[in-house]
Amino acid sequence: MAEGAREAVLLRNITKSFPGVVANDRVTFDLQPGEVHALLGENGAGKTTLMNVLYGLYRPDEGEIWVRGRRVHLRSPRDAIDLGIGMVHQHFKLVAPHGVAENVALGLSGTPFWAPARTVGRQLKELSERYGLPVDPDRRVWELSAGEQQRVEILKALIRGAQVLILDEPTSVLTPQEAGELFKVLGRMKAEGHGVIFISHKLDEVLSVADRITVMRRGRVVGTVRAEETDKAALARMMVGREVVFRLTKKACQPGEAALVVEDLHARTDRGTPALRGISLAVCRGEILGLAGVAGNGQRELVEVLTGLRRPERGRVAILGQDLTRASARRIADAGVAHVPEERIRLGIVPGLSVEENLILKKHHRPPFCRAGGLRLAAVRQFAGRAIEEYRIMTPGPRTPAKLLSGGNIQKLILARELSGNPALVIAAHPTYGLDVGATEQIREILLRQREAGAGILLVSEDLEEIMELADRIAVLFRGEIMGTVLAGEATLEEIGLMMAGERRTVAVGEER
Amino acid sequence: MDWTSWLVGTVSRALAFGVPLLWGTLGEIYAERSGVVNLGVEGMMILGAYAGFAVAQTLGHPGWGLLAAAGVGALAALWHAFLTVTLRANQYVSGLALTLFGLGLAGLLGRGWEGRPLRAPLGAVAVPVLSDVPVLGPMLFRDQTILTYLGLLLAVVLWVVLFRTRWGIAIRSVGESPATADSLGISVARVRYLCVALGGVLAGVGGGYLSVAYRPAWTEGMTAGMGWIVIALTIFSAWDPLQAIWGAFFFGALYHLSFRLQAYVSPELLKMMPYAFAILVLAASGFGRARWRARAPGALGVPYVRGER
């Protein structure tokens, strides 16, 4: 850090609390012009909160914000934008039905009152050439891939004269190759004197892209290090607070009979556009099939069709040899299918019901929990008590409303319910998304245990590392088609990345069963 | 009665009947484009009708009446905006309450005025030259008040503003994705307040037109469910001000025909016609899901809370 240099941004002793949690506890953070400063930490460490403070979305309870040597008070994002701070949120803030140029023109000062989109379109062309961010100003945002949408977000910030760019988990929606492209763009921005704050929980990419790394844990800064002076293990220790083992122990796969066979499945999105275009795959008992792919390539629709929440247009779904193509969610569940949904609070639990009620939801209507239309509370309590113990669900009590549990414990609750009665097929969508390292490890172990007990598992995840670690075979989904299936032991990250970007693998392996 | 004069009369009255629907629909389109459903259109219209009549009668000029109608409509709409935008109350409940409140209040205040003709009604404007064209002249340009032409002009202006200006982008973005607009420093609350208030102004004028121009007198419940047709028309026109023109005048024609055909068909059946048609339109818009639903503003009916995704 050069002495006397004026920081692009200095956050000093920022404290921000929400009811029940201190999200930021006296956090100090600085950014120099022309550097990439990574903010590393687990989900819930307070990284995004800190950046929302810097972007004017939250007001800090205490602490000072300095921008280019001046103390500032940010009342709204507009103030932050005026000071040259731009933010690319993890969930893109774009108006999907609108065109790219309209999105960029929204709230942009200096555009003409009449036909602003046309003027902005011209400016966009210039900027996108200068920084190497190709994008067509006339396309509608919903037609764009996640990578393209991210470019729009970056251009939105640049056109507003952002000197400081905050990127919140920018690679979570990208293929490894797209991530490489993004890093090149960041290099160009650095050269032009922009400062970049790069939020992430992935150690490898932080080490490769950042100049300095600040690690946060539970709302506090653990330390700031230079990228060339640290390594993965040291960062992980700072991030988690203890040694982290990067390998899970996994027995060799012994595939048995087919748990799930899908043939030529077609389905549409809510918008009516094609989501699945002829999916064929099989999951055997005792194996984990990992389904990789960038978000929005049909994963959600596939899971919904398989669990009876969406009607397929054509194709066949057989579970344990039984044709269940258009069966209801209950019939599919009764056939022995467990569903760990992507949106765990919206689809996985009834937030207002108690833990014990949530635990019996799928079986509440039949013995032993129900007799002659009435619930048998003793049986419910007994079952819940065992489940809470076995799955180590941290809850004040069985009658606590499920919504008061932490994300990891909600997920364990869902697993406890879904896995009771030893299902033959488990469909798990993003099972560890947003969970801390401890809960993630526990949930991965539970899934592996289920695999050894003979269940077939379809694991849908955007986390390539997770898929590489857990899966026996990996299938890659792109625009509603399977680009190829590879054995996990033989797959390289690069190969999977190419398939995620739409390159078809000619020879499919492991398809025989 | 020969055919031409029947046609001239029908079209001319259909236009006149379509005017309040057009004004109301244009207003509701703006409110809904910003993400706020206002089911209080019927209430705002009847309040506008009452205020318009009372003020025009007292001050002796229809202009003051219409201004009062606009003001009262805006006040009623601001109340809805306060409840739904600031307090984040349920938009449907608040809108229904506004309708019931408006009907009740206007009925109560209007007791003394019932049945008296307005001493200063808004007269028809004969457009020079055009009104002398045979057939088309009397059909379109002789019996209309200034509000017909203003309404048409307004539809065009509102379309241009919505789709070709900075304001339009802001309004549509707030209705589609308020979090996006917020993150770019646009005040979601301000845009919604303004759009809902504009909706109130236009609905108020639409109501005022009924008591000051169309049938210059005050009758309790004189809006006769037009506010509900407006809600249906907003969907029917796919939230597009230009398409609202066709919809409004089509329903105007239905209203008028329900009077005209009374000699031949049972009047009860005919009176039902506009509403039955509105139900049909809504049912049809539910079927063609991909086509219609895709165009409804994404955040319609959802209060915006910063920090929620």
Describe the structure.
The complex is a heterodimer of chains A (513) and B (309). Chain A has 513 residues and is α/β, with parallel strands linked by helices. Chain A has 3 domains: 9-240, Rossmann fold, CATH 3.40.50; 251-336 and 423-513, Rossmann fold; 344-419, no CATH class. Chain A is 32% helix and 25% strand. Chain A has a 6-stranded mixed sheet, sandwiched between helices. In chain A, strands 16-19-20-13-21-22 form a 6-stranded mixed sheet, sandwiched between helices. In chain A, helix 14 (407-419) packs parallel to helix 15. The model of chain B has no long low-confidence stretch (mean pLDDT 90). Chain B contains 13 helices and no strands. Chain B has a single domain, classed as ABC transporter involved in vitamin B12 uptake, BtuC (Orthogonal Bundle), CATH 1.10.3470. With 309 residues, chain B is an all-alpha fold. Chain A binds chain B through residues 55, 57-58, 76-79, 81, 87, 89, 91, 93-98, 102-103, 105-108, 111-117, 156, 271-272, and chain B through 164-167, 169-170, 172-173, 176-177, 179-187, 289-290, 294-295, 298, 306-307, 309.
